[in-house]
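Trying the structure run again after the queue cleared.
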Amino acid sequence: MYQPKPVSPKQNKSLLILNALLALISLVSGLMALYYSQWTIVLGMTLVVLSSCINVYTCWKRMKTKE
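Done. Tokens:
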């Protein structure tokens, strides 16, 4: 069975920052699309926000357990 290598703290911090930035940008894009009533883009941005928020939470939790 495949066992991935653990992520280093530096990589984890950079992933946390990138995912938080992605969540913020996709939230703004989704709100702009909502203003223009483009529902397909709103749905896509909602899924991106949810997945990046889950990634932010797991990165943050992983950082806190290693300290």
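The chain has one domain: 11-66. Worth checking whether this holds up in the mutant runs.
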